């Protein structure tokens, strides 16, 4: 979440003086024999929009439920503003949660749902009304205040759930797959609304999702979880452009992974792969030691496809096996002589009828020396 | 929060301990006591001191009612049911080695199941009936009444469960196949009798079945019979009464099983070459099995200890253990024997109850 | 599409005739002029009049209603608690015994329950009367209530309660202001079930009642043993009609509520 109106980049995680709002300190959670969270350490900073992303069963929901107070860590500590919140029951935490199912109280109106938490706080009665009105306005629900949850649409329900969890102005808002129940079009619109609301209220958001596009869109930082551990915690662009492992590279978006051996080269390194194939040149200031086993990862859209030999740092020759036409883009599956299949993506700026390549064509694939990354694990 | 939870658990728990478990302990204790001309009419009691009381307990009542023989018969019964489970698949496989799902095969399958089931029921009933005199000569049972009552309760419970299934299944099947908007109404029609008084529903049959009752009037007027039939105060009336009052308990679980069945399964079976009948037999029937089993237990278990139906419709000729217990307690005032009768009945019921619960758990998964 | 064959139609016709004809006969003959119940001698409502004059029946009816009210209310409270424990309390010591005690009375022959409670009341030296019947009925009816409420709680979305806790409710407050209102229909049907079971019960009431506390089923049973009488027919008719009206209106109300909810949802999605 880059803030467009200021020149200062929002990046408290790079600032050693910044104080985190949430700290996980060596947290482990076991359910019987099963370890859901394995010795996890993580800092989340105020006003962040933090996304937990991972496949189902990776422990992201458990992590969030521990923040909400519905699970307690088996080992380790969770600090909120420097205070251990382990013994604090959910109803006394300054943390609110938006549930995946929305958990709207079906017997109460939209208004009463939003006022529910306020009525249980110390807020004087006359201020409750104002606060609810403010929330209704924020989420554009004004004319639905008197309706019951089953009398409004899915998108409106989602906004009631958001308004309800924001009403108490929590220090931290947890969102469990908040857009999971919406259809794709509505989801895209709502993502931006969520970001606006987060910015307006300045609340720290922690969102759990399995939808990578959603995480990349809304989050200031994304944590990729796998088997109860964090695979990588970084900004969306870093996650995409500089994944730290083949797992992350493969999990986010589409990628070509080429197995090979590192070799020393001027200004960077080479990756030797396949028989009779030229080594891949990479410019980097952190080359791997020569002889190390590694993977070269490159996104398909960074691979160019051409009929004649191009001038580029890396060029390979192959045959088109398959073309996947997706409307705005096309993905070409190109078989390199050694049996490796490469994916290359081009934007369809021309009409389909005037397409340059077709099946069985001999083509050249090329990419620059900074387009990909080398991964040691 | 911790305290609140403890309190929440403690209240109903204590209630059930006091009004359910402890009373059973008392029944158990009295079943080991002797009858006495005192208030309360048994000895020893706690007034004699705890150890004195313990040493005064014995198994006399159980010997008196022939508990050993009851258990012997029950064991034979359980074994024969288990054998059915083993024998039936083999018989079926032997008769229809490779099913071609034609009309002939499905009819054969239906007949086989029916035949094996009937043979099984007949075997059990024959066993129960012929075992009495044999056992009587082998086992020394001081009073044959109780033993006979247990056996006849078992016999009545088994036969009436089978009859209820025979009548209940087509009703449940018809309901499940009725148009969607009709089903809630049909369901309500089945549930409605369940809410109306049990006693009144049994009572309604007295007027129908008595010698000058509506049924005899009807049959005489059409000329089917020339003499009124004696149905009331015979076991037949008891069977009718049980089938009538317990029919909803059979229909509801079977309907539930059939209703949630995917229609396309039957269509797929027919698409793959089944006739309507063989599709029923190979797809619908096996899928409704959990419902059938649940229904059978729901009828069998309460019928075994039934009191109202045999005492209103069965007359003095029908002996059932619930009625015997009642009379022992209220008429003979022999509390220790009544308690022993209750304990044995409970022990017999434990097996079907455990089987029933296992069936329910399997169905839920 | 399911095909409804002539076989289905026949079995339904005969099945429902079997279920309803006996009750219908009872109702028709309660309007019979003659005391000879099986011979029709013209229409009359005189037996209803005589029933209203019968002090013993009226007293018994009043006792029955009192017993049914108190026992079903107690049973609903205890049964709802028991259901909540079974679904939500997780593990606690003695859970196995608890679930056994909850389900056992459902399949226990009434003669055994009645006998054991009577022996218990005698052992602790409690005078038998309305109180003992209420205690006995509460014990077996709470198990039915807990089954009804449990089946509702199982399908209850746990996150609703978590949301209430998250918004500042104490566990008790969450139950009172969120869970209870939502499961209320099940609690009410549990109460109605307990009430009917108590109204209906003969065996347990006979064991646990005293000389001064005769309930209607006890009264009916002793009258019926001597044969069919037109007063009992009239009484049965009243009871059958009350239940029928109750059940039908309950099902109509719940169906129209369901239809309205569905219509609301459709309208909401179209906005």
Automatic annotation (TrEMBL), chain A:
Q: Which GO terms describe its molecular function?
A: ABC-type polyamine transporter activity; ATP binding; ATP hydrolysis activity
Q: What is this protein called?
A: Spermidine/putrescine import ATP-binding protein PotA
Name the InterPro entries on file. Answer: AAA+_ATPase, ABC_SmlMolc_Importer, ABC_transporter-like_ATP-bd, ABC_transporter-like_CS, Mo/tungstate-bd_C_term_dom, P-loop_NTPase, PotA-like, Transp-assoc_OB_typ2
Give the protein family: Belongs to the ABC transporter superfamily. Spermidine/putrescine importer (TC 3.A.1.11.1) family.
* Species of the source: Octadecabacter ascidiaceicola
Respond yes or no to whether keyword Hydrolase is given for this record: yes
Q: How does it assemble?
A: The complex is composed of two ATP-binding proteins (PotA), two transmembrane proteins (PotB and PotC) and a solute-binding protein (PotD).
Question: One GO biological process from the UniProt record?
Answer: putrescine transport
**UniProt superkingdom:** Bacteria
- Alphabetical list of Pfam families matching this protein: ABC_tran (PF00005), TOBE_2 (PF08402)
What's this chain's function? Answer: Part of the ABC transporter complex PotABCD involved in spermidine/putrescine import. Responsible for energy coupling to the transport system.
Q: What is its EC number?
A: 7.6.2.11
The record places domain ABC transporter at 22-252
What cellular component terms from Gene Ontology apply here?
Answer: ATP-binding cassette (ABC) transporter complex
Q: Which SMART domains match?
A: AAA
In terms of SUPFAM superfamilies, this protein maps to: MOP-like, P-loop containing nucleoside triphosphate hydrolases
Per the UniProt record, the lineage of the source organism begins with: Bacteria, Pseudomonadati, Pseudomonadota, Alphaproteobacteria, Rhodobacterales
Protein transport found in the keyword field = no
From TrEMBL, chain B:
Q: Which InterPro entries match?
A: MetI-like, MetI-like_sf
Stated membrane topology is: Multi-pass membrane protein
Q: Ranges for the ABC transmembrane type-1 domain?
A: 150-356
Give yes or no: UniProt keyword Ubl conjugation.
Answer: no
| Localization per record | Cell membrane
Membrane-crossing residue ranges in chain numbering: 7-28, 62-88, 109-132, 144-173, 185-206, 236-258, 335-356
Its predominant location is: membrane
A single GO BP term for this record reads: transmembrane transport
| Alphabetically ordered keywords of this record | Cell membrane, Membrane, Transmembrane, Transmembrane helix, Transport
**Repressor recorded as keyword:** no
The protein's name is Putrescine transport system permease protein PotH
Organism listed in the record:
Octadecabacter ascidiaceicola
Q: Which gene encodes it?
A: potH_1
From TrEMBL, chain C:
Membrane topology classification: Multi-pass membrane protein
Show where the ABC transmembrane type-1 domain sits. Answer: 61-253
InterPro entries tied to this protein:
Bact_Polyamine_Transport, MetI-like, MetI-like_sf
Coiled-coil regions in this chain?
none
Q: Which residues cross the membrane?
A: 12-31, 67-89, 101-124, 130-154, 174-194, 232-253
Key words of the record: Cell membrane, Membrane, Transmembrane, Transmembrane helix, Transport
Task: Give the subcellular location.
Answer: Cell membrane
**Which superkingdom is the protein from?**
Bacteria
UniProt GO cellular component terms: plasma membrane
Q: Name one GO biological process term.
A: transmembrane transport
**Known CDD domains for this protein?**
TM_PBP2
Q: Which family does it belong to?
A: Belongs to the binding-protein-dependent transport system permease family. CysTW subfamily.
Q: What is this protein called?
A: Inner membrane ABC transporter permease protein YdcV
Q: What is the lineage of its organism?
A: Bacteria, Pseudomonadati, Pseudomonadota, Alphaproteobacteria, Rhodobacterales
